[in-house]
Design a protein that fits this description.
Elements lengths: L10 H24 L10 E8 L2 E8 L4 H8 L18 E4 L2 E4 L12 E3 L1 H4 L7 H8 L9 H17 L17 H7 L10 H15 L1
Helix pairs in contact: 4-7
Length: 213
Amino acid sequence: MRDHPDYSLSRRDILVSGAAGIAATSMTEGAAVAGTSRPPDAPPAAAVAFKVNGKARKLSLDTRTTLLDALREHLKLTGTKKGCDHGQCGACTVIVNGQRINSCLSLAVQHEGDAIVTIEGLGTPDKLHPMQAAFIRHDGYQCGYCTPGQICSAVAMLDEIARGVPSHAQVDITANPEATSGEIRERMSGNLCRCGAYSNIAEAVAEIAGSRA
């Protein structure tokens, strides 16, 4: 009778085979990181051009890159803060085509041709935006982490009122809104301050609103 081949494996054989497989996988992944090969499931890169703080910028980005990460990591505009990264705190608020948005919830590739303003584009240490100066006068910050988003939101919010955009605080949404204390607090409610400087923030915004009236 013909002898059957011996297919038995020792524990050592299994361990050696497993180690070789792990090493091969690591080499493949390392090559991908080094740029010598591209994983087949990697998302494509996309070119996006927009204007940021008045300057034309063009980037080649992973299509999953948020506007927040494009601003912070690629353009080094770190004034815009990453807080919750879920659109709940408002620390990442920027102004896009005159409207405030949470940049952590928006993909950079969605903003082809848009005009984006960050806190760096509102004013400089030598020439502050009126809202920035008001925040300083009224101590509208403590740790300062949420402040860039608060200021961008406040600037765009007063423009919303000027354009007649209604809010939940209005009794008659067909009437022209006014920058009352209730309106300001309602419209700024999406910007959280962990330090609790809300009353000072409201005072700063009210001052600028009054100067516009």
